[in-house]
Amino acid sequence: MPKRYHVTTFGCQMNAHDSERIQGMLESLGYAAAASRAQADLILFNTCSIREAADSRFVAHLGEAKRLKREDPERVIGVGGCWAQSVKEEVFARFPFVDVAFGPGQVHKLAEFLTAESLTAQGFFEFEGFTGHLPAKRAREHQGWVQISVGCNSVCSYCIVPSTRGREVSRPPAELVAEVADLAADGVREVTLLGQNVNSYGRDLPRDRRITFAQLLAEIDAVPGVRRIRYTSPHPKDMREDVIRAHAQLPALCEHIHLPLQSGSSAVLRRMRRTYSRERYLDRVALIREHVPDCALTTDIIVGFPGETEADFEQTLEVAEAVGYDGAFTFIYSPRRGTEAATLADQVPHERKVARMERLVEVVQRRARERAQRFVGRTLEVLVEGPSRTDPTRLRGRSRHNRVVNFDGLAAPGELIDVRITAATSQTLTGEASLLASAGA
Ligand code: 5AD
Ligand code: SF4
Asked: Where are the domains of the chain?
């Protein structure tokens, strides 16, 4: 019987990708996936610490792991990712049933632990930059992630990431292009480039091997077989015209930009240490709209940052109204240990944060619904993912604008087909596969 593993992932795409690498690594060690934690010999949690809610969700799950460990002490319990990194060795003091803990990306350390002679509790928390090639077990066969950098050099005052993922380290361009070529050869049609701040890519590379993010996009666009390129997240301060133009020029680069706003008030942005103002942000949006008029724009917004006044918040509402995002992730500010913002006076009371959140969500959803109507009647290229989640007689895929499309038709996952859009809500599009033209796979 092979040993079985079970992995639970919290947080962002960076973590989801680390989990794919963890699973790929485990399978190369001869482990097989378990359907539930109770059937697993190795129970792993890949944690997030971006918001308090993520911490507490995870701690609730750990309770089950504790019980299972008591039933069978041979079981191995591992905790990786940003939360583990943020509390380090404290993990073992607080949760004595944990056998191994490791920071984000330290997948090779987990392998080292599992293949060691004796398994005594151990923690691995260094920043070593990117930890090299590991086979990933992709959740979707035709979509792949490529981590182009680790760490972050910004000092956003609310964010715990700089303390959990270290300083920014870019991977060499040749290595990235080779990795994308391997993915394409393996059937991947869409790649998403990942980094804490993707558009500052390359600045830390040695001069003779330094290329900009826009140049990297062009090199990846040239890889045969890659039909779609996405990236997340860029920082508005580094959103240069060359990257925006690339969206108009490179055939594979999708018409979607996720541009985190965080706040529409320049005063709040200053205290967040975002290094751009409301005007500068809106100026980036105008440039995007000028070069790529149909580009989908999504964002992240935090409400209730310390000292946020009603007037500050209304400025955020105004920007959301004016930009008309295709979608937004909205967050209630949550103080994180060790961050500057957690020490600021004037923390906003919880009820006020919740009330602001509701008002913001109303604007965001209404504008997203309005924006989505522009797709009705158009034919969009859809990358087929599989059956629809809500109605298995239909198919589900994504447009280049990153909209989920549920549609009638016959197609295999990984195919790119044309779908005529018949209806749109703030979240999803509905349509029919067009019988005439197919973009082929
Ligand atoms: N509180 C609330 N939201 C946060 N984010 C990051 N840190 C915090 C925090 N302390 C949000 C930001 C970021 C997204 C990934 O999470 O909007 O862009
Ligand atoms: Fe991802 Fe940030 Fe959570 Fe780390 S803290 S897993 S980088 S969302």
From this structure: 4-124, 131-370, 376-433
CA of 423 to the centre of ligand 2 (A): 35
Amino acid in the structure at residue 35: A
**Cβ neighbours for 64, distance < 8 A, ≥ 6 positions apart:** 37
Task: Give the tokens for residue 174.
Answer: 């040749």
Architecture of domain 4-124: 3-Layer(aba) Sandwich (3.40)
Contact predicate 292/334, CB 8 Å: no
Upstream peptide bond of 154 is cis (omega within 30 degrees of 0):
no
**Residues 33-55: tens digit of each pLDDT:** 999 999 999 999 999 887 777 67
The pTM (predicted TM-score) of the whole model is 0.83
CATH H-level, domain 131-370: superfamily: tm_1862 like domain (3.80.30.20)
CA-to-CA distance for 351 and 403, rounded, in angstroms?
A: 32
Measured in Å, residue 287 CA sits from the centre of ligand 1 at 25
Four-point Cα dihedral 306, 312, 313, 319, nearest 10: -130
Q: 156 CA to middle of ligand 1, Å?
A: 10
Q: Which CATH class is domain 376-433?
A: mainly beta
pLDDT in tens, 188-221: 999 999 888 999 999 999 999 899 999 999 999 9
232 in Cβ contact with 192 (< 8 Å): yes
One DSSP character per residue, 312-352 reads HHHHHHHHHHHHT-SEEEEEE----TT-SGGG-S-PPPHHH
**Residue 194, phi-psi category: left (phi > 0), alpha (psi -120 to 50), beta (remainder):** beta
Residues with CB under 6 A from ligand 1: 50-51, 158-159, 260, 262, 300, 302, 331, 333-334, 336
Q: Which ligand is nearest to the CA of 233?
A: 1
